[in-house]
Amino acid sequence: MNKKLTGFILAGGKSSRMGTDKGLLPVDGEAMVQKIALAMNPVVDKIIIISNGNNYNYLGHKVYEDLIKDCGPLGGIYTALMKSDTDQNLIVSCDMPFLRVELFNLLIKSISSDHEIIIPQFNDQPEPLCAIYNKSCAPKMYDLLIKKEFKLKEVLKQFKLGVIDINVHAELEDCFTNVNTPVDYQNVKFNKGEYSN
Looking at residue 92, what DSSP letter applies? Predict the structure, then answer.
């Protein structure tokens, strides 16, 4: 079945707080980026990694560099949309090792022509680095990048959102565990699923 959905993993950050390429750190014996790819695989046609190096080439997925450098996650999202050949795109960050197919299916079920972005919300906070973006968002994102308006929470205000409240899905709360610092990583290693930002 042609799912007509491209999966992107954003791994182009500098990992300055971690001190090493966080997407390659092992959790449950697998690199975080590989765990995420395995979770995405059932719902997407293909997986593409956005990274500004060759560290991820070994995974066998296409890897593209940011088209506009040093713009944070927005630059990665824009690059993903420009490289995509599907209207709908599941775009996630490489530092969320507990993402699950059940969450992705919730987002996919909410795809609508009325929305440009389908985004989960957890504890009243939007999670723009685990969302479905329509390719049509790219031109407006380019304008924001040129204006150096990089903050994703502000960027979201420019688009028609479909919001999924994850607080009513308690089994998915650990999906939003982020691994940004060595402390985060130690918590994840020793308290899997119990630590989240």
Answer: E
